[in-house]
Task: structure prediction
Amino acid sequence: MILFSLALLACGLAAGCVHYEPRPVSPEQTASALESRTLEDPGLKSFLEANLHSNTAAGTTRVWDFEMLALAALYYHPDLEVARAEWEVARAGIITAGGRPNPTVSVTPGLNFSTVNAAPGLSPWFPAVNFDLPVETAGKRSKRIAQAGHLTESARLNIAVAAWRVRAGVRTSLLDFSAARQREALLQNEMPIQRQIIALLDQQIQAGAMAGPEAVPFRIALQKTQLDLTDAKRNSAESRARLAESIGVPVRALDGVELSTTFPDAAAAADLTSGEMRHAAMLGRADILAALSDYAAAESDLQLEIAQQYPDVHFSPGYQFDQGDNMWTLGISVELPILNRNQGPIAEAAARRLAAAARFNALQATVLADIDTAVESFRATEKGLAVLQELAGAQAASRDAVAAQVNAGAAAPLDLLSAQLELAVAEEVQLDARVKRQQSLAALEDAVQRPIELITPALIERNPAAAKEKQP
Result:
């Protein structure tokens, strides 16, 4: 009867077990899914509407600006998928940490040889059932749960860390694409001026007003411009492909999509360079908070190893039926911490806590250096761009003055073309300065992780409904 009851209990427990469900990964299916990604995906549209708080953010317009492309990358990029999956693993760790040790039961039937020839009706066999009920001491379970909770929070914050890296990649690629397109346009405008200059020089050479070798530098300059134009077109195509990669879509997903290359105005940098923003970044960046969670997990680990010094208690009730007698027993067992008091694991956990503190200090020092570097770089590029703009203004005024002289017959057309060429070259230099300013502004935003906040339910869950629920 006892064995039958135990069998029924085992069957009931097995019925409540989780069963394995195979989920094979098919390279063909994943490749097809990646190739079919577009910016017209309905899920992406809902994600954009939830995060931009606009029903016309996507689908009704073909112009995609930086923020929309960055959100598309947060939706598609595989690094975010990996970070979300790691967060799910950490969340499952809380369930593991909260698990209680199961009791055990053992059935040990025995035979009493002294009663084999006993009176009829008395069986020489005696069934015995013993239980083992472990009881954890020193709050080990709560310490495990606390450690798992800190690791889960760290994994959640690492989603935001990955999001900032993805956003920075989109901005870099879009800025490279914008710079290549603008440089291509400037070179296209510069080449006709150079051709006109060479045509006028050829006329002077034919008229004997100048020697042929004097025009060689101008021809070489034209050839260099043609090569630069070829490089600009190649850079434009390559940066477009890198932009698609940074978003997580195939490059053909950008076909027919108008990309806006307007970036946030540099006027916002006044807030980014403030002492309050610097202090907030030193304390509240996602990676800083994640490192703090890692340190808290290391502290919980040390507390757990210290608690392991105290042995658990095992209660062992038992039952035995022998010759018509019901016999009950109750045993209590405790490990004796005589030879080993968990000194080694405690020392390792203490060292891991020191290492976590050192990593946090190193990260905070790196953040401080990144902010200082970004601030100084942005201020330097601002000053450099201001100087170049003044020079460009002076060159534009000089060109206008030469144009007036040409109209008055006091200067030759070649003088005007030379002034126009100088202004075109100055515009190229200005473009480089503007690109550097945008790069330094991007580095400044990444250093302080402002002005946007990326730790949102929609980002973490990739669920538009979560973000809508959070809206007031």
Q: What stands out?
A: The first helix runs from residue 2 to 15. DSSP finds 14 helices and eight strands in the chain.
